[in-house]
Amino acid sequence: MRTIKVTVNGESHQAEVPDHRTLLDFLRQDLELMGTKSGCETGDCGACTVLLNGKAVNSCLVLAAEADGKEVLTVEGLAYPNRELHPLQEAFVEHGAIQCGYCTSGMLLSAKALLDEIPRPTEEEVKEALAGNLCRCTGYYSIIKAVQAAAEKMNR
Amino acid sequence: MKKAYVTVGKSVTRLDARDKVRGVATYIVDMKFSGMLHGKVLYSKFPHARIVKIDTSRAKRLPGVKAVITGEDMPFLHGEALYDTPFLAVGKVRYMGEAVAAVAAVDEETAEEALDLIEVEYEELPAVFNPGDALKQGAPILHEKLGEYYHPPVITPVPGTNICNHTKIRKGDIEKGFKEADHIFEDTFTTQMTQHGTIEPHAAICMVTPDGKLTLWGNNDSPYRARREIAVALKIPLHRVRLVGAPYIGGNFGGKGGLKAEAIAIALAWNYRGRPIKIVNTREEEFTSTVVRHPTVITLKTGVKKDGTIVARQTTCLWDTGAYAEKGPTVSRMGGASSAGVYNIPHVSIDSYCVYTNNQISGALRGYSGPQTAWAYESQMDMIAERLGLDPVQMRLKCAYDNGSVHAGGQVLSDVTLKTCLNKVVEAMKWDKPSPLTPYRGRGVAFGERFIKTPFASSAFLKINEDGTVDLISSTSEVGQGGETTMCQIAAEELGVPLASVSKASPDTAYTPFDESTTSSRSTFHMGNAIRMAARDAKEQILQMAATQMKVPVKKLTIVDGNVQVVGKPETATPLGQVMRRRYGASGGVLGRGFYFPDGLAPEGEYFTFNCIFWMYCAQGAEVEVDPRTGKVTVLKMVAAHDVGTAINPKSCIEQIAGGVSFGIGFTFYEDLIRENGKTMNPSFLSYKMPTTMDMPPLDPYLVEPHCEQGPFGAKAVGEPSSVPTAPAIANAIANAIGVRITDLPITPDKILAALKNKT
Amino acid sequence: MVRKLRKFNYSRPGTVAEVVSLLKDYQEKASLLAGGTDLLVFMKLGGKNPKHVIDMKGITVLDHLSWTPADGLRIGCLTTLQSILRHPLIREHFPMLEQAAKALGHPQIRSRATVAGNICTASPSGDCAPSLLALDARVTVASPAGERTIPVREIFAGPFKTILAPTDVVTEIQVPALPPHSAGSYRWQPKITAVDETLVGVAAVVTLSDGGKTIKDVRIGLGSVAPTPMRAPRAEEFLRGKQITDSLFDEAAGIAAGESQPRTRAEYRREITRVLVEQALKEAVDRASRNGGNR
Description:
By secondary structure, chain A is an alpha+beta fold. Chain A folds into two domains: 2-77, Beta-grasp domain (Ubiquitin-like (UB roll), Roll), CATH 3.10.20.30; 87-155, DNA polymerase, domain 1 (Orthogonal Bundle). In chain A, 33% of the residues lie in helices and 16% in strands. Chain B is an alpha+beta fold. Helices cover 27% and strands 26% of the residues of chain B. Chain B contains 18 helices and 33 strands. Chain B has three domains: 34-125 and 200-250 and 256-289, Aldehyde Oxidoreductase, domain 3, CATH 3.90.1170; 292-453 and 608-759, Aldehyde Oxidoreductase, domain 4 (2-Layer Sandwich), CATH 3.30.365.10; 456-596, Aldehyde Oxidoreductase, domain 4 (2-Layer Sandwich). By secondary structure, chain C is of the alpha+beta class. Chain C is built from eleven helices and 14 strands. In chain C, helix 9 packs antiparallel against helix 10 and helix 10 (248-259) crosses helix 11 (266-289). The N and C termini of chain C lie far apart (44 Å). Classes of the chains: A alpha+beta, B alpha+beta, C alpha+beta. The interface between A and B is large, with 51 and 54 residues.
């Protein structure tokens, strides 16, 4: 067991966690932030994507201990503090970029990491940024459109 | 005539979208209860073996372990069409994904640790891994008691063999047909094993009270069907079993019916009562122990006239159904019925065998046999056209079903839109123009068709609240398809209230009325009709009240935008809530009821027939480019035209087509669950490859929207057929591009390159 | 079967000396954690079950990337693949390494996985190895016996096996500066989908002479076509000193394909090796000819 200090969605948490706990389990079990999903536990599906110090990571392949002293952003923290939806969330809603919703949190965070780095991505850059997020429902078309629409809106 | 609707026909925003983007939509994996235990499963080490001994004593002694069970603790059989499946292996194992023992413990780690302490002694038995071998004389028999399993009469297992179901259809006189033919072509097509790959795994939480009342929370697509399966298996009455659907299901595609994670949760909870026990599948378990799409071997012997008229077709279909029946009997039955294609053929002979093997269990996967049969008949269609020197589009238009055509299963078809769909596709592809495609580029088309498992009922309640808002009570599951939104649109339209006034919660067999299943592309049609009936019933009650209140004959009243008003007099508009309150004060008092059952399709009491209340038709086209050095195929464009009837939510329909095509792309090129002697070699997303953002071709989707007389507001359906024609359309385009015909899926660059070499 | 991580003891030392001292105590009971994208997967699959996990990321000085004409490129063992992408020094001096980084995994993996980790995992299909082989890179290894330098080509002992001892720590990768009129290229084809492990990866580094008309020197690294990443010595020898002609690269590619030893999908892999070797050579020569080379 060890004590870690992690800032999650702007809120600082101090917690006792076993050494072998993953960041994903820490978020879901300890903090009960259920928006981050588990899909494979081996970094292949992207459902558990969160931002760790601004970078998109598979939280199933990060130890909670590794996040000590770092900042984590999950889907629950994506909406602006006034609880309005983030432009990416708005665009996903408007463009119907959601079916079952299980990949959605991870998709949104991968997209956020992209737009933070490249505010005006090309279609190819959007596809590359989302290449680690599997979606079985949509064929990705509306998701790619939504990310482009959000980028446009945010640059306005 | 198409009527103008207020809510129906509009691409309204999904009602679940905002919760889903906020990450607050709840799935079964997110649910937990006080005192909840976690279950884990020990699987078989062999594809076929007798269980000599299981020693669970060490596992039971591990601190934190509450229960360790084996098949002996659960002496029941379950199944969807044939009750052949133990909850855990009893006496012998029939595939490597079979549960041998299960543990319930205070946490997952402890349960996993306990698995290591269970000792199983096996005596290996000869195994069989493909349906051809399984049919041979002297093949190892998987189910010695096949003749004793409970099943509906229409399912026809052959005791003493590995034939789980044999569907035999004869139309005309096949020998006469072949005699009339100018040419007879015989070709064999095969398809591989694929899996649903929903990102959300199967999961379930079960609690059984000491007195035997069972509650199951889960992501089962069809709570009522699962409840029936559980009650029949456990020999308890239906009302002692309650299924509660999680608010949202993370993808289905036919994979989340029956008892998967549920079976283990039930078995543990049945033996360790009073505490909820949760099972969440790992990704590996998803691939090895749930359900997959049948690998098939389909042989078509087709007699044609010189002008392309098809006079006779004999089909032999082998469905590798794996170790247990699951939906295999019905999938292979429907697949058999469709295996002769969508063409007018006077003489047809069909034999479709659903065959047990020591592989994982096969069942329904988006298309319910359609992708496999279309792969065969639509590939052969182009092969025949080429051999006869005919244009594949013209030959299809000449032979395809029309209104009045008779399906192999006997039904006289109406509302047939195949040609409309194909014309839409070829128009979009500019087929009439000489191909603008350069060397190594080609184009192809294919038809698709689907009918649904039938006849089955759906029912719905509409509760009108005291403020005039509406709770739609229906057992349709939101699996991602947009059912929640579609159903609310139908309710809002029929009742005359704004969509924002209607809510629909997830199914719970204790509260939401009967619905057979959220499968088979049946919900919009069946549940939609039930909801319309419920809305009409509610509306009648409201208007009766209003008639008394407003002193106007009922006939002159209607509901518009949530207000009761005299027809044509908007100034009389009275909010629904006001009408309710004036009659009952603070008490909500109106419940509309709807029950829809497609009568007249089958003798009373029979189900799984070939006659269906509606059929779905579609066509897709592909343009491809082949790299002759690497064999890699680039799909330049897909065009898809689908007859959905009246689209209740056009955007939602387009999304279904897009998702369906992505399944089709995966089936065509990438997905292949590989086994060696029964062991699954690639049970992860690292090695079982589904299309990514980088793999999807441009897509032009089109909705063909004829009004379907029996459908709710003219609607049909879209989910199942959306991936049916994709693979043959692409294969036909590849053949057009490089003169190479691939007949075994998936189409890999290795196969293309080898075929190109053989050609030169 | 993928399981929850089994219990272990986690530590995050702040210096290499501390790491070495811990390794001396724990020996093979310890695993080093850099990006974790391989290690945690192996642990969940049960292939590794360390009692101690030593996180290198406390040693922040090991996350560095620098270039000087004298030392060439130095990549700290915590440098991620993500930081290789779009890095101006990489783009200027070794664009082939950006190609290799792009070939590996997807964004979430690249933001954690390190170049050094990719070498130490010793996957036959690792994307960094072919380029580092072709670039004659070396790694610095710290151990209880002190520091030493090993050429990358000597590291691989078999699939997922290196010659490194349980007490060895790779701290840095060094890529020597290329001579004038030199450049490299990495070409790859994924196994099945676009986002996939590498079916064949080919790196080529060429040095031109004679005004760009002759191959003065060449090194070819092949990935995923043998139990370990490998060079293609016969193809290299064939090319060395040859004048560039239309058919030269195709011939060389044929030789290289013959040198590959693929096990699964063997025939197809050989074909693709041939295609990619030709592509990589052409791209490397193209880059070397442009602006006097050195790319």
